[in-house]
Write the structure tokens for this entry.
Amino acid sequence: MLIDEIINFCDADYDSIECNCDDCSNATICGHDCKECLDDIHYHRNNLRSDYSCRKLLDYYVCRYSYKYCSEIRYALQEIDHDRYRDFSILPLGCGGAADLMAFDEVCSEKINKYYGIDINEYWDTIHEQIKCVSGYKVNFSTNVDVLSYLRTNNIMNYNVIIIEYLISFFYKEIGEMGISQFFDDIIESIVSNKRYDTPMLIIINDVDSCYTGRDTVDMLIDKLNNFTYSKKRFSPSSYYSDSEQYDTNENFYVIDYDFQQKYCVAKTCNSAQLIIEVE
């Protein structure tokens, strides 16, 4: 499966390339430890690193989070009737390591038509090239692309799946609630208004289940759309995500080698909040 191919590649690449931390302001704190760098980005422990501008760090990121992120999207895909879709032409906004493509590969590989991932971080290029080589699908990526600018300057045709995975929480910090509202307007204008007529459009937002990271801003997208159905899902037993239903389990779908878990401090438990929309 694609997830195995890419994680194995990133594991080998992580072991083979030298740590390139000489110019990193975090090097004296983290001791060349990618876990510490990631934790600094996510939890602001030292406030010395704020981005993923390191190939080795991204290898670690894929090994640490892909099982979790892929599993969360797989749960979302189980919520829809696949017979309503002739195929899936997938546009992830902020694609990262393409955990969403890994999920489609596991659940409905026969219906993948094309996948076009965009991301601002050009350090993903090596991993993206590997995905293109081994996936067997029509896959393309563009990096060094700002999602917000891209939506404002392009009419995006012939896609029927939009994936927004762990991007709202980033935008909530960077552009705030009003910026996210504009982001949703731009999605409707540039993508949804150009949707295919032979299939519904599927929109999956998967992100942190916390009111402090923009979770509740996704309701703005519901208010802006017409002729659609939606569901809100969560893994947590706490029902702070209003009108959401809890999944029966929060387990990921994979058996992960113990040594690998220890090496990468693998995130195993699904704990996101999801908005799943189907636009007719």
